[in-house]
From TrEMBL:
<dbReference type="InterPro" id="IPR043502">
    <property type="entry name" value="DNA/RNA_pol_sf"/>
</dbReference>
<dbReference type="GO" id="GO:0070987">
    <property type="term" value="P:error-free translesion synthesis"/>
</dbReference>
<dbReference type="GO" id="GO:0003887">
    <property type="term" value="F:DNA-directed DNA polymerase activity"/>
</dbReference>
<dbReference type="GO" id="GO:0006281">
    <property type="term" value="P:DNA repair"/>
</dbReference>
<dbReference type="Pfam" id="PF11799">
    <property type="entry name" value="IMS_C"/>
</dbReference>
<feature type="domain" description="UmuC">
    <location>
        <begin position="13"/>
        <end position="267"/>
    </location>
</feature>
<feature type="region of interest" description="Disordered">
    <location>
        <begin position="383"/>
        <end position="403"/>
    </location>
</feature>
<dbReference type="InterPro" id="IPR001126">
    <property type="entry name" value="UmuC"/>
</dbReference>
<feature type="compositionally biased region" description="Polar residues">
    <location>
        <begin position="391"/>
        <end position="400"/>
    </location>
</feature>
<dbReference type="InterPro" id="IPR036775">
    <property type="entry name" value="DNA_pol_Y-fam_lit_finger_sf"/>
</dbReference>
<dbReference type="InterPro" id="IPR043128">
    <property type="entry name" value="Rev_trsase/Diguanyl_cyclase"/>
</dbReference>
<dbReference type="InterPro" id="IPR017961">
    <property type="entry name" value="DNA_pol_Y-fam_little_finger"/>
</dbReference>
<dbReference type="Pfam" id="PF00817">
    <property type="entry name" value="IMS"/>
</dbReference>
<feature type="region of interest" description="Disordered">
    <location>
        <begin position="500"/>
        <end position="538"/>
    </location>
</feature>
<dbReference type="GO" id="GO:0003684">
    <property type="term" value="F:damaged DNA binding"/>
</dbReference>
<protein>
    <submittedName>
        <fullName>DNA polymerase iota</fullName>
    </submittedName>
</protein>
Length: 599
């Protein structure tokens, strides 16, 4: 069954993923580390390692113990304090954003960006001189004709899918002979040079390398980018659609080999349902019966009778959106209309959390709450204030808009109104079954004194814990004992921007602003079954594992990029059969190793 091409297939989208990001942050600080095998540790796990370490057999999400055995001279650095990653991430985001017209850049987690460069590419394609393509000039600024770079528009820059030498401008193979494909080919070709330029500038000016995918949607750009890593780029070449329904397109060819669980938007539950249907049925296309974890897009796509209605029957049910079949069928065919949502400069909420082996006393809770709250208040000062060097517009010298001793004034750019405490009690066992208990939360107004920047953060943290958080905790856990927590999260939400002069401004509710963005954003790559109230397994202090996509409408609005620092209630997870913990897909292997090691 054919699929209507995406209404947005005239867009040009780039996806950037920085290479071994956390490790690179350390390398940029200390370039000597580049030549050594370097691993970043959080808890007992290597969250990432540089490519020298990978060359020697280390990999992401490996146990530290194992990494040391494989590579005894590995240099291990602690990555539990996320501030440096956050700062680097913001800096890179702003730098890249400065190139993109209309600032159409969406930040996903700390190390991924989507860029909608449709307008820049259309402008530059219009200006191509078809008689001298070899000496083309890419205009980065419409008003400054000399700002830009020269490039050779006779060929695509970097790797392509499909691979091969046939990437020359104007010599499209017969399947792409129709006008649309050749026009798309030109736009992708020009975009490939922009991608190369951005990667070069990023490396030269900031010291980071990135892997880039170039296509017409977020889904395809992300997937194609990951085919050549690191420090590389891949363009998904046309044809994307054919008039002949039986003829394969490059999009279908490309997607077919992917495991369904690797397709953003097809989360663990959908994967489970599809796998069950395939393995229970007799209509298997490949050997998925022996390897149900490896069901591919092709396996599903080529099932007899496959299409939106059959998918509706397989995937539908209570809680599933009505268009689930059509949506998943679209994804399997590479159709993704989700927009690049411009990421703002301010977070909609900030949260800090940690996970615990055993936390079952009030004293321990108080201590941990003070530590989490201290980190949270420091984050608020970093992310929500700016120095104001004597601007007349800031006249409020109250303690909320204050001076660092001997320095310029500090001003709050936004003030959260709500304080939220969440906990996740450890699962209990009921006979043979592990009972999974989700995250539970309590909110209260955030007292104004937290904005007093003259006051010592640790003293403020203690005050907030005693004034507010302990009583919120008691409401969540009225019993004095008998509970044991795996996780606590302290958050400030309901952000109100303090625009301009704080005395005059009533403030703009950016929470609302982002909420509407968020609801659109959650449409992206949607998995219909809401991940339960529980967040993902947390391996590290203060940050849920890197967010992947944003499936389903979550119980808690959590849509800003800063939320990568806190809970991500929407990540696609699988339940561990041993301990019941919810594990993000990409961490499952590491988690299994963890059980094996501790057994
Ligand atoms: P990734 O992009 O998955 O990894 P990476 O950038 O380190 O390596 P690659 O070259 O393969 O892209 O994740 C980005 C950062 O997120 C990574 O540097 C460390 C952090 N991270 C976690 O904190 N927990 C995790 O489970 C993973 C996978 C990553
Ligand atoms: Mg990366």
């Amino acid at each position: 069954m054919a699929v209507a091409p995406s209404r947005n297939d005239r867009r040009i989208i780039l996806h950037l993923d920085y290479d071994c990001f956390y490790a690179s942050v350390f390398e940029v600080e200390q370039p000597v580390l580049k030549t050594l095998p370097l691993a970043v540790q959080q808890k007992q796990i290597v969250v990432t390692c540089n490519y020298e370490a990978r060359r020697r057999g280390l990999r992401k999400l490996q146990l530290i113990k194992e990494a040391k055995q494989i590579c005894p001279d590995v240099v291990i650095v602690l990555g539990e304090d996320l501030s440096k990653f956050r700062d680097a991430s913001k800096d890179i985001f702003r730098y890249i954003r400065s190139f993109v017209w209309g600032e159409r850049v969406e930040r996903l987690g700390f190390d991924e960006l989507f860029l909608d460069v449709t307008e820049m590419i259309a402008y530059n394609v219009d200006l191509l001189n078809r008689h001298d393509l070899e000496h083309s000039f890419f205009h980065l600024d419409r008003l400054e004709p000399t700002v830009g770079f020269t490039y050779d528009a006779t060929r695509v820059c970097g790797s392509t899918y499909p691979a091969g030498p046939d990437t020359t401008f104007g010599t499209a193979p017969s399947a792409t002979a129709d006008e649309d494909a050749s026009e798309l080919r030109t736009r992708l070709l020009v975009a490939s040079h922009l991608a190369a330029y951005l990667r070069g500038q990023l490396e030269h000016h900031k010291g980071y390398t990135a892997t880039v995918g170039i296509s017409t949607s977020k889904l395809l750009a992300k997937l194609v980018g990951s085919t050549h890593k690191p420090n590389n780029q891949t363009t998904l070449l046309p044809p994307y659609a054919t008039t002949d329904r039986a003829a394969p397109t490059n999009v279908v060819d490309f997607l077919d080999a992917h495991e369904i669980r690797k397709i953003p938007g097809i989360g663990s539950k959908l994967t489970q349902k599809l796998t069950k249907y395939l393995t229970e049925g007799s209509a298997l296309v490949s050997d998925t019966a022996t390897n149900p974890d490896r069901v591919t897009v092709r396996d599903v796509r080529l099932l007899p009778g496959m299409g939106p209605s059959l998918l509706d029957r397989i995937l539908g049910g209570p809680g599933a959106p009505r268009d689930i079949g059509a949506r998943v069928w679209g994804l399997l065919n590479g159709v993704d209309n989700t927009e690049v949502i411009q990421t703002g400069d301010l977070p909609t909420q900030i949260s800090i959390e940690d996970s615990y082996g055993r936390l079952d006393t009030l004293d321990g809770v108080r201590r941990e709450l003070i530590s989490l709250t201290g980190s949270l208040l420091r984050r608020m000062r970093t992310d929500l204030t700016e120095e104001d060097n004597g601007s007349d517009s800031v006249t409020d010298l109250s303690s909320e808009t204050s001076r660092h001793p001997g320095l310029s004034k500090v001003r709050w750019l936004a003030r959260p109104r709500t304080l939220r405490l969440s906990t996740r009690p450890r699962s209990t066992t009921d006979g043979a079954h592990a009972l999974h208990i989700g995250r539970i939360s309590r909110s209260a107004p955030l007292p104004g004194y937290v904005f007093h920047v003259d006051e010592n953060v640790d003293a403020l943290a203690e005050r907030l814990v005693h004034d507010q958080l302990l009583s919120m905790f008691r409401k969540l856990h009225p019993e004095r004992s008998g509970w044991n927590l795996r996780l606590m999260n302290v958050a400030v939400t309901n952000m109100v921007e303090a625009a301009g002069d704080q005395k005059q401004s009533s403030g703009r509710d950016i929470g609302k602003m982002f909420q509407s963005q968020g609801s659109r954003r959650r449409d992206a790559f949607t998995e219909p079954e809401t991940a339960s109230e529980s967040g993902p397994l947390n391996l590290q202090h203060g940050e849920a594992l890197r967010p992947v996509y944003f499936p389903a409408a979550p119980p808690v609005v959590n849509d800003a990029w800063e939320e990568s620092d806190g809970e991500d209630t929407t990540m696609a997870c699988v339940a561990c059969a041993v301990c019941g913990a919810l594990i993000p897909h990409f961490a499952r292997d590491a988690h299994e190793v963890f059980h094996l090691a501790s057994d």
